[in-house]
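User: Thanks for the earlier help. One more: Cys-tRNA(Pro) deacylase, prolyl-tRNA editing enzyme YbaK/EbsC. Can you show the sequence and predicted structure together?

Assistant: Of course, both are below.
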Amino acid sequence: MSLPGRDGWGVLGTLHAVPALDRPDLLAEPVVRALKEFDAARVGVAEIDSDLADTAEFCRAYDSPPGSSANCVVVAGKRAGEVRYAACLVLATTRADVNGVVKRRLDVRKASFAPMDEAVALTGMAYGGITPIGLPADWPLWLAPEVAEADAVVVGSGTRHAKLAVPGELLVSLPNATVVPDLAQPVRSP
């Protein structure tokens, strides 16, 4: 459970959250550095079983609402031989419009999810735990409006053994963050 008076930490379901910087052992190094730069007291962290880091498993195991979890995806595209990267943060109940909105914003012919090893190496974070906090300084961070407007969302901690609860307004204040209309599309049923 969240501590009384902590913005939105209840999105972590049955987990007990503490201020993120109280447990740097649960955070990737780039996340620790970034949290020192803004209102980190409003960011909660909770330890989880690393086998339950994927969103669906996490939500089931810890009774966290799927509509309150956000996925941070790293996308890449090439233009004139230059690889361009960006991160997109969308609710777990949606998907990033990589072939439309993302491709146009990156100004590339084709955009796709960055390969796992590349995303891990460039962010200094674990795959399945990549978070918008602490991304490379030159990357744009595009947020779905639903994420930006949320009281709080669950995101990765840069590791697979913890999750963060972060107010949407703090995510909007991250470096290079932009709210992008139509970034998130509904997930289509098979």
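User: Great, one quick takeaway?

Assistant: The longest helix spans residues 98-106.
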